[in-house]
Amino acid sequence: MPYFLLASVLLAMLGGPGDSLASLSAMLTAYAIALPLATVSALLPLVRPLAVAGVRALGGVPVAGLAEGPARSWAERGRTSAWWTLHLGLGALVSGLSLAMPPMAGLLLAAPLLGRERRVELGMGWFADGSRLWTAPLAGLLILAVVVGCAAVAGALLARAVPVLLGPSTADRLAAAEERAADLAVRNRLARELHDAVGHALSAVTLQAVAARRVLDRDPEFVREALAAIEDTTRRTVGELDTVLGLLRDGDAARPDAAPAPTLGADLAGLLARTRATGAAVTAYQDPGPVGSWEALPAIVSREAYRIVQEGLSNALRHGAGGPVELHLAVREKEETRVLEIVMTNVPAAPGGGPAGRGGGGRGLRGAGERAALLGGSVEAGPDVGRWRLRAVLPLGGGGR
Fold first, then answer.
1. Measured by CB atoms within 10 angstroms of the end CB, which terminus of the chain is less buried, N or C?
2. Angle, vertex CA 293, rays to CA 289 and CA 299, nearest 5
3. pTM score, whole prediction
4. What torsion, rounded to 10 degrees, do the Cα atoms 229, 231, 232, 234 define?
5. Is there a single domain that holds both residue 69 and residue 218?
6. Residues 318 and 388 placed together within one structural domain of the fold
7. Is residue 350 a contact partner of residue 321, using CB atoms and an 8 Å limit?
8. Are 194 and 150 found together in one domain?
């Protein structure tokens, strides 16, 4: 209607046919002018979300494949413009038929009840003759059927045009795929953080409590150390859990009060001490090599390496047979690139290989592999000559992706 009214004003300014909108020629001319106006206005990017919202509200068509967001390219704008013009053009015709034809059909249906003079007065002179009067109701029914048929045909045509003109383009599908991939990456990252932080803490606290209970009467000093380790572990884990939940609530926005992520340089000694407080014998061999110290590692490598070591120790605590754990950390030169190599070995609980669930690569080992892959490195884990062995290689620069 806005396009039609604007076209009528332009027509009146140009001295078009007819003095009123009631003039059929004026209405048809205004309709012919309004369609190009609608076509041009639909080139605006925001018209597509409006058109998609209208299709969803009307229903009756599959809406799962509709494009999202404003039109980006001129090809998308052109398809949206074609839909807009087709929708409004057919809608105007169906609206006109729906307004004009039912009253006419009603008069024809009532014609047998009217006198001859009244039928002539209402413009139904052809039905004034009594021999033709019986055809008036049939004509009325035919007019109603034509109106309904036109509406149905127009609806079917528009429904078939929706996926072609308002469906997602290749660029839309690519943008949606990238958005889903980004969401999945965030979910995986949060899942890894929760698993590594909370899972390790629960394993360590459980074993520390068990070890303390067993020697409660014989070794009070060990019990005090175990309780102190439990306190330290739970305090650290609460801080890490708060940080992860903050990321879940606020996205990637950094919080000034968030606890810093643990790193190899700052937190490795504490991790080893808390692990030893469970009664496990952990021997660590450290060789920073050319970097000099773990504090000199790139921050992201240090964080991911800490989590990989943490996951390896968690597996050793959960699945180990109480045997010793050996941890080797070394920076090496490999093909003109410096890499951090992490090797951890321990005796598995089940003879002849890893325990149930370990060989299949649980969530923790899979998460460690994802962490390494993000840096361009790799993780290998599995039985090795009667022991369980985990080996990770992390490039220190130039290999991340």
1. C
2. 110
3. 0.49
4. 120
5. no
6. yes
7. no
8. no
One-letter identity of residue 173: R
Q: What is the C-alpha separation between 251 and 240, in angstroms, rounded?
A: 16
Burial state string for 243-271 with b = 16 or more CB within 10 A and e = fewer than 16 = bbebbeeeeeeeeeebeebbbbbebbeeb
Instruction: Please provide residue 72's backbone torsions phi and psi, each rounded to the nearest 5 degrees.
Output: -95, -50
Half-sphere exposure of 350 (CA within 13 A, CB side): 10
**Is residue 185 domain-shared with residue 271, that is, in the same domain?**
yes
Q: For residue 338, which phi and psi values (nearest 5 degrees)?
A: -80, 135
Q: Are 331 and 348 members of one domain?
A: yes
Q: What pLDDT was estimated at residue 206?
A: 78
Which helix (H) or strand (E) covers residue 338, if one does? strand 337-348
**356-384 per-position pLDDT tens digit:** 334 444 567 787 888 888 888 999 988 87
Assess contact for 208 and 278: CB atoms under 8 A.
yes
CA–centroid distance for 23 within its chain: 54
How far apart, in Å, are the Cα atoms of 178 and each of 129, 172, 184, 334?
Answer: 73, 10, 10, 34
Q: Is 109 helix (H, G, I), strand (E, B) or coil?
A: helix
